[in-house]
Amino acid sequence: SQQGEEDPQALSIQEGENATMNCSYKTSINNLQWYRQNSGRGLVHLILIRSNEREKHSGRLRVTLDTSKKSSSLLITASRAADTASYFCATEDMRFGAGTRLTVKP
Amino acid sequence: EAGVAQSPRYKIIEKRQSVAFWCNPISGHATLYWYQQILGQGPKLLIQFQNNGVVDDSQLPKDRFSAERLKGVDSTLKIQPAKLEDSAVYLCASSLSEGNSPLHFGNGTRLTVT
Fold this sequence. Notes:
Number of helices of chain A: 0
Radius of gyration of chain A: 13 Å
Shape of chain A: globular
Number of helices of chain B: 0
Largest interface: A-B, 21 and 24 residues
Helix content of chain B: under 10%
Helix content of chain A: under 10%
Strand content of chain A: over 45%
Oligomer: heterodimer
Order of helices and strands of chain A: EEEEEEEEEE
Largest sheet of chain B: 7 strands, mixed
Distance between the termini of chain A: 40 Å
Number of strands of chain A: 10
């Protein structure tokens, strides 16, 4: 089994800026998922990227996957205060790391 | 569609007492997960069910934690006896299938052990 490990642990930016967070994993995967968690709530699924995909978009979100480096990145463009949350990645075994805590200042 | 339902929302107990959490997944979801999330940490997988069978319980402290999923639908997670370090949010999630479909989470049960 394995889990994704996110970095940085914390990220603070101004509204309108872009936010990039990374995920690393250890063994081969079939897919990788990104989730968001607002304080006091359950996680919400953002995007799933399969191992044969290099990039995927959903609104202001862009996810890339580099299977040779066993890493993925999540880019949030034109961030908003409402994007303030913790972000997690997970591979098929659905184990999560410590997450990236994103703070977007108005 | 209705989301994943969990109850209770909050629970306060004293150490050495017992507690149980209930989860009703989204209809038709075969896979169900229980996670423990301690404040400031990521969710830790406790147990995964596929229908009513256990797929992974390697991180479940079996001396005090137990879980069941009757008829492959609802699930309960029990702690007996509770310790102070069990204070956490217990999250339930379900998905259509194992490993390749999104998880849908409930809002969790916040447990405080005093």
